[in-house]
Amino acid sequence: MFKNVIAPIQAWLLSQKRCVGCGKELADAKRGKAKGGEEKVTCFCGRIYIHDTKTDKYRRALLEEV
User: Fold this and answer.
1) For 38, phi and psi rounded to 5 degrees?
2) What single-letter DSSP state applies at residue 15?
3) According to the model, what pLDDT value does residue 29 have?
4) Fewer C-beta neighbours within 10 Å, C or N terminus of the chain?
């Protein structure tokens, strides 16, 4: 039940290009290389995201991508 409440809020934050943990803008976060046309983005709070540069969307990184 808890996930049903949190998931839409996290999706909204990612659509606004903000971290789901601290709410800071991901544009200001540290960037690195990832496979294909993607960037590995590390927020100040330590959460890791993958930025698809083609669609300009963010998602949480999988364990294999960390």
Assistant:
1) -120, 155
2) H
3) 97
4) N
Query: Whole-angstrom Cα distance, residue 44 to residue 22?
Result: 8
User: What whole-number distance in Å separates Cα of residue 50 and Cα of residue 11?
Assistant: 14
| 39 neighbors 55 (Cβ within 8 angstroms) | no
What pLDDT tens digit does each residue of the chain (66 aa) get?
A: 889 999 999 999 999 999 999 999 999 999 999 988 899 999 999 999 999 999 999 999 999 998
Find residue 39's DSSP bridge partners.
Answer: 33, 51
How far is the first Cα of the chain from the last one, in angstroms, to the nearest whole number?
Answer: 28
pTM (2 d.p.): 0.90
How far apart are alpha carbons 19 and 57 in whole angstroms? 12
The phi and psi torsions of 57 (rounded to 5 degrees) equal -125, 150
